[in-house]
Amino acid sequence: MSSALTDLFPYPIVQAPMAGGVSVPQLAAAVSEAGGLGFLAAGYKTADGMYQEIKQIRGLTGRPFGVNLFMPQPEHAETGAVEVYAHQLAGEAAWYETELGDPDSGRDDGYDAKLAVLLDDPVPVASFHFGVPSAEALASLRRAGTLTLVTATTAEEALAVERAGADAVIVQGLEAGGHQGTHRDIQENDGSGIGLLALIAQVREAVSLPLVAAGGLMRGSQIAAVLAAGASAAQLGTAFLATPESGAHAVHKQALTDPLYVRTELTRAFSGRPARGLVNRFLREHGPYAPAAYPEVHHLTAPLRKAAAKAGDPQGMALWAGQGHRLARELPAAELVEVLLAELSDAGTALSGRLDGGEGR
Predict the structure, then answer these.
(1) What averages of pLDDT result for each successive group of 10 residues across the chain (361 residues)?
(2) Which portions of this protein are annotated as coiled-coil regions (predicted)?
(3) Are 264 and 283 within 8 A, CB to CB?
C-alpha cells in the first residue's frame, strides 16, 4: 500500500492542506506539477465551494492531488464557558468595530455533503483531520478509487486509523503549525504532545500502514530524517505558506520571518482547539482563558480575525505556523520543491559518506 500511495507522486513531498484560504488550487496544482502531492483544504468551506475548487485544480493540472476534510465534532463545550469568553472578547469587538460571531453556527463543517461529493466525483486522495471516518466511509472511498489518509498524534490514534481501514496515517508531531489533529479534544492533555521523530518510531512499531510525517519540516535534510525514521513521505505546511501561490494574507507571510515573532505556542484562543501559531497580542491576552470549545470559539472569533486581516493588523490574526517558521523561504512552490529535493539528495549523499567512512575504520 505504501507503493500505491507513493506511486501517485514521484517525490516524497506532500503539501499540507491549510484551511482558511491558504491551500488554494494554484498552490496545490503547482506542487503536484512539480512532482509532489498538492492538497486542497475543504475545512470551513461549503460542499459546493469545495467542488468548485476541485474543478479549478483539475483545470490547472492533470496530476494527482488530495482533498482534506474536517471530521464533525461531538458536543462537549460548556455554554457558560463560551459565554464568559465572549464577554472577555467584547473589547476586541469594539476595537475592530465588528460584532462577535454566532458560536452556534454549526459543528459538522458540512461533512456529509462533502463526503457525498467525493464519492460522486472521486479525487485521487482524501485525508481527514480531527478524528477517524467510519469504516463504511473509508471502504466507499476505496471502491471509488480514492486513497485515504487520516491524521494521528499518538500511536493509539494510529491504531484506530488502521482498524477503520484507512490506507495511510499522517503522523503529526507537536512541532506542526495550525491545528493538532487529535481525535478527542481533552484539555488536560494540552501541551503533552509528542515530537515528530519519537512519534514516528512509536507509530511504526504499532501499525503496518505507510506513514506520512508532519511537523515543523522546512528543509530537505529534515525530510531525509523522517524518511530514514520510517516515513514514506513528508508533509510540509509552513514551508509552502510563504510561497506566492499560497492564499495566506501578506501580513501572515511576512510575520513568519519577522524578528518580532520569536516563537510559536499551542493555543485555544482563536478556535477553542489546540493550534500552533506565532505568539502575538491576541494569543498572549486570550490564550490562558480560552475554553475547550471547538468550533464554537472558531465561529465566535471569525469576525475579529477577518477585521484584523482587513486592517493589516497581525496582532489580532491567527498566525498559524510550525516551529520551523523562521526557515521559511519566499520561493515559488515549484522552485521550493526543487530546492527541497536538492537538499534531500545532499543529505542522502552526506549520510552515505558517513556510513562508508565508518566501514573503513
Answers:
(1) 81 97 98 98 97 98 98 82 96 97 92 98 98 98 98 98 98 98 89 93 97 98 97 98 98 97 96 97 97 96 98 98 98 98 92 67 46
(2) none
(3) no
